[in-house]
Amino acid sequence: MKTDAQILMYNFKEDERTRQISRYLNIAGISCKTVPVTDYLHPLGYLFGLTGFSPSPQFNLGGNFSDEMLVMHNFSQEQQTDFLGFFHRNGLAPVDLKAVLTPVTQHWSSLKLHGELSKEHTLMHKK
To answer: What pTM value is reported for the model?
Structure first.
C-alpha cells in the first residue's frame, strides 16, 4: 500500500531497531530517505522533492549533529499516530527530535530544524 507519506531520517545506526523502523515504513508504504551530512544545508523542501526548491549552493563545511532526527511529510493523522505508537508497542527507544514539514520549515535546512528542535526539547525537559 503505497502512500504519499515521506520521512527523512538522520543519524540512525545500522542496528536491529533501525531495521524494525525501516520494515514498518516499508510495510506502511511510507517512502524513507536517509539524509547524509553533505545534504544538511539543502532546504527540506528540496530533500522531499517538492516543486520550486533547489539545492543549496553552499557546501557543508562542518555543520553537523549526531543525534537522531525524523522529519515527516504528507502523513495523515492516523499514519502519524500509528508510526509514533509503533515505538511504544515494540519497546523501541523513541526519537527525541521529530517534526512534521510545514510551510515554514520546508524552507529551512536540516541544520536549522535540528537547532530549533534541540532548543524546544531542552526547554520541554528542563526541571
So the answer is: 0.93
